[in-house]
Structure formats: structure tokens, C-alpha cells
Amino acid sequence: MPSFNYKALAAKGGVQSGLIDAGDRSEALRLLERRGLQPVSLQQVSADSAARTKEKAAKKKVAPKAKPTVQAKSDSADSSGQLKLKRPEVVLFTEELSDMLSAGLQLEPALKAMENRQELGGLKEVAQRIRNEVRDGTNFSVALKRVSPSFGPLYCSLAAAGEASGALDTILKRQAHYLKTLAELQSRLILAMIYPAFLVCAGIGVSVVFVTVLIPQLTQLIESAPGGKLPLPIQVLVNVSDHLGAYWYVYLILLVAGGLFFKAWKDNEENRPTWDRVKLTLPLAGPVISSRFFVQFLETMANLVGNGLPLLRALELARDATLNLSLRGALNEVIDQVGDGRALSKAMVRTGKFPALLIDMVSVGEQTGKIDLSMRRAAERYDKELNKDLNRIMALIMPTILIIMALMIGTMAYLMINAIFQTIGNLSGRH
Predict the structure, then answer these.
(1) 5, 8, 9, 22, 134 from 19: Cα distances, Å
(2) Which of 101, 201, 244, 398 is most deeply packed, by most CB within 10 A?
């Protein structure tokens, strides 16, 4: 009976490979479907190759299980034994592994090579633990989740997609690029906020001096003058200052309590869809979140479809890699409609979540039969738009803060100078 070498997706999302005996290719597909496996590749092998594969599998079953070695707990490990990594370490691990996989190494030898590299430092233990998990039959994405919480759900979902499509090196390289872009953005944001933060602190200090020193002195000067009367704006400012001075701790408690309540509400699983929906409508952050989703979705789909994965399964993996629940709901609608036989571009139109330009490029890919290339070009285009949006936001931060501080301090200075001139005018009128 012919034998077929298969690679398939399990119901839980893992990747399985092995040998199956069947009368023909159709029967092999039916047998895999009964086992709950979705084939990614299925190739008939010769009788000699099948015999050697079965012999190796039999030896592996009877081989004595090696006694696990006890490792000393790392300083960076948490109470559960998982290793915590900094973002630069995650980027370095991802880049090194993707380079080795691109050079032709298999996953386990690549991890073994990382263990032997002295310059990787603490990442050697991470590579060793992941390699031990992979050697015992655990999927790479699951091993990442078990070894370190620093990889995160998005990283693990993309790794699972790379395993399923056979493009793990490409997806890891793009993930490293994404992490470096995110780190660069945070670094630029911190640098850009240093001067505005200094201006805010200086403005708050000046305001405190105005309210606690200058305005009380001006008030005494005006009230001591014959017929002196505080102007209405100054009187309002004095009353507000006295009120805040007497009840500042109440407002501080309310502010802290409000922050804690908002965090608890936001972290509640029942409220996550609402909060994710609100984030997409925020004035500056909303377009950035949407653009980042489009870039990630298009890149992931291009890699998966380009490596031969069925469109429906590629959409499911792209959905699993989406953290925003509102956008994930839109992908669920697309998956349902594509499963019913509707074209991808038509399904995206019906959700109302995707821009017209993106849908047009996907439609062109469907018509030409090169949907992966169309999605990759669309991803590059939206990546450029995302960089423009980020640069625009960074450019708006400085003038916005300057205008706010100028209005706040300028208003108080104007009120004080106006009160002084009004008092001088009253005195001159009496004389």
C-alpha cells in the first residue's frame, strides 16, 4: 500500500507531520480529516523511504527517556520559572533565529547554535529551554509561551502562523522589524517629550508662584488702596485658589480612585471589546492603531498565502494574531463569509472596517491570481502611511504644548497686569 508523508494543522493549532498508509491521495486526505488534521502538504514517498521512516519512529518509541537535567534558577526568572526578557533581548533573539533559519538551518539546530554563542549572554538559557521543549515534540509557538512571558500573545500567534505556512524565518524577520520600529518609536517619543515635559513643569511652577505668592500680594495691595476692589477675574481666580488649597487632598483621592476604577474597568474581559472599539475612535491614536493592524494583517496574509496555506486557514491565523477584539470581530465576519464561498474582497466590503484602497488592491490580486503579491504591495504602502502618521503626531506635540502653556500663563499675567492698571486708574481718579 502506498505511503504518504504529510504535514498538517491540528485542531488546537499545532503542526503535525508523519507518515500515513492509504490506497491513494484522496483516501489519505480523508484519513487525515478523520483524525482532525487539516493537510498543508501531502507527498507520496517510495517504499524504501517509508520503511526507513517507520524504522526510525519505532526506535524513537523504544529509546529510553533521558533524565531531565535540573537547571539552576536564573536571576531573570519569575516565581513560575519563566524567564523575563527585555525588549532588546527579544529583538536580538528574533533576529538571530530568523537569520539562521534563512541560512537553511532547521529549528532545533539553529537553537543549538544559539546556545553555543558567547555574545548572546542570557539568551543562551532561553534558546536551551526552547530547544528542549521543541525536541520533546512541543510546537515552537507553544514553547515560546512556556519559556518566557516576554514574547507575548501576538508574537506567539505569528510564530504559530509561521510554523503552519513554513515561513517561520520570514515572519520572525518581520516581527523583529516590527519590534525595532516600536522601540524606535518609543525612543523618539521619549526624546520628543523631554522638552515639552520641561515646559509643562516650568509652567506649573510659574502658575503655583502666581497663585500662592503674586496674586495674594496683589490682592492685599488692591484691598489696602482707598476704594480698592478686586476685578471679577482676579476674584474668581482667588476663590478657586483658596478652594483648591483647602480641598486639594479630596481631588487627589478622586483622581487616584478614578484612575484605578478606569484600569479595573479596562482590564475586565467583559469590557475589553468596548474599550478596543473606543481606542479606534481616538483622535490621534485611532488611525495609528488601524494602520498598524492593516500592515500586520496584510504582511501576515501575504506570507501565509504565498507559502501555500489555504486562504481560509490563513485568515484564521491572521485573526489569532490580532489583539484588538473589535478588529478581530471584523475578521470573524470575513472568515464566515469566505467560508460560505464569497470572495475575500467582497467579504471585506461587507464588514465596513477596511478602506477602499486596500480592498481594491486585494480585488486586483484575486483577478490576477497573485493575491500574495498584491497584499505585500498594499502592506508596504500602508507601512509608509503609518510612518507619515507617526511623524505628523510627533510634529504636533511640541506646538500644542507650547500653545497650551502660553495661553495658561499669558492669561494669568494679563489678569494681573489688568488688575494693576485698574487699581492705578482708580487711585489717579481719586486724586
Answers:
(1) 5, 11, 14, 10, 20
(2) 101
The domain boundary residue, chosen from 181, 213, 234: 181
Indicate whether 38 and 103 sit together in one domain: no
Q: How many residues does the chain have?
A: 431
Nearest CA-CA partner of 415 in 295, 235, 155, 275: 235
Query: Phi, psi at residue 9, to the nearest 5°?
Result: -95, 130
Query: What pLDDT does residue 64 have?
Result: 44
Q: Grid coordinates standing for 93?
A: 533573539
Q: Which domain holds residue 18?
A: 3-46
User: Residue 170 domain-assigned?
Assistant: yes
**Strand-strand pairing, 38-45 and 3-9:** antiparallel
User: Pick from 249, 252, 254, 248: which is nearest to 211 by CA?
Assistant: 248
Cα–Cα distance, 273 to 310 (Å, whole number): 29
Query: CA-CA distance, 353 to 277, in Å (whole number)?
Result: 12
Is the pTM higher than 0.85? no
